[in-house]
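Supplementary Methods S3. Input chains for the assembly prediction are listed below.
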Amino acid sequence: MKRKIIAPLILVMVISAACDTSQAKKAAQASQDISTGINLLIETKRDLLAQGILTNAEAIQIDKALLDLNSADKVFAQGVEQFKDGKMSKAELARLFTSLNAAVRELNDHAAIVQNEKARATIASVTASIAIALGVLQGMLGSA
Amino acid sequence: MDYIAILKALAPLVIDLAPLVAQMIASISAQGGKDIDTIIAETLPQLDANEAKLLADLAKEQAAIAGGTA
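Predicted structure tokens for the full assembly:
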């Protein structure tokens, strides 16, 4: 009788651990995608400045927003590591995601007020790649 | 010990969970060969490099404005 109970319990525990590992891996990958997106946006911003279609004042605002996002992503990546090791709950990781989400919104706000239409569209195309990574996390942590 | 009875009792559970387990295995396989530690070990230095680039750019752009070349 005991074995009838223990076997399904072990199965549920194994599946639960596999789900957590899978979620941690998705979160780690999304964090890396955001980091890659930030680097791409830095290069894009430099290019737009060199073309003279982005002002230094606009570039400074984007830099500051990117620094905030970069810091939020770093804290999130460290949180994923703790989540993987069982030192952080999914709810705590979701709170770090909220900061990440706020930093992306701040970046979008600064990108939206760039005066030159071509520069604005180019920046928007790069921030869209960051939004995709954020969407993966939203799906995973939104209900935590 | 009646192993046949135990197997009969577990059989419906195994059959019910089979699609879920198959889906999980497929999902994990689809994520490629890198493990979490490798992904994070790659990401943190990338973020440090991003920060260094951004701070350098910020200083340069602020200097350009101060020098009147904005």
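Chain A has a mean pLDDT of 87. The interface with chain B takes residues 3-4, 7-8, 11, 15, 18-19, 21-22, 24-26, 28-29, 31-32, 35-36, 38-39, 42, 45-46, 49, 55-57, 59-60, 63-64, 66-67, 70-71, 73-74, 77-78, 80-81, 84 of chain A (CB under 8 Å).
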